[in-house]
Model the fold of this input.
Amino acid sequence: MVSTRANRPHTLARVSGHHEITAAAEHEPHSPAPSASPAIIGLGVTILAFGVLFGLVLIVVGAVILVIGLATWLIDDARAYVAAGDPTGHGSH
Done:
């Protein structure tokens, strides 16, 4: 490997902006809980698209399934937000 000034560790740290690792930066990454909502939304959009080709009944059914999928996703997200609490620790104003 050819050593250049650009690939030295202290140069890379300065360029990347990561001078120190603080305790606040060392936290677990958040991953959302598994949910069926994206699949429900996909099904609703698919049925809605077929409704454009085959008739109003499928448009209505697809739209209803789409709204149900969106509602379940928002409800799941709201429950996760409430369960997580206040990340700043300041409480409510």
User: Anything to note?
Assistant: The chain has three helices and no strands. Helices lie at 9-16, 37-54, 56-84. The first helix runs from residue 9 to 16.
